[in-house]
C-alpha cells in the first residue's frame, strides 16, 4: 500500500522544450526532501 501525504510546493519553473533528460532532472529534484535545488539545464 502506498500512502500519499499532502504537502505544499513553492517555487517557479521556466518550462524548457520537451527533453527527456530535463524531465528526469526535475523529477529527481522533486524527491530532494525539502532541499533547495538549482537545476542548470542546457536546454533552457
UniProtKB/TrEMBL annotation:
Segment forming the signal sequence: none
Keywords associated with the record: Transferase
Keyword set includes Ion transport: no
InterPro entries, A to Z: Enolpyruvate_Tfrase_dom, Enolpyruvate_Tfrase_sf, RNA3'P_cycl/enolpyr_Trfase_a/b
Domain Enolpyruvate transferase: 6-39
A GO term for molecular function: transferase activity, transferring alkyl or aryl (other than methyl) groups
A Pfam family annotated for this UniProt entry: EPSP_synthase
Classification via SUPFAM superfamilies: EPT/RTPC-like (SSF55205)
The protein's name: Enolpyruvate transferase domain-containing protein
Organism per entry: Candidatus Methanodesulfokora washburnensis
Amino acid at each position: 500500500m502506498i500512502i500519499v501525504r499532502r504537502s505544499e510546493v513553492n517555487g517557479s519553473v521556466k518550462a524548457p522544450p520537451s527533453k527527456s533528460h530535463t524531465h528526469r532532472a526535475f523529477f529527481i529534484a522533486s524527491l530532494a526532501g525539502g532541499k533547495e535545488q538549482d537545476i542548470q539545464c542546457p536546454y533552457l
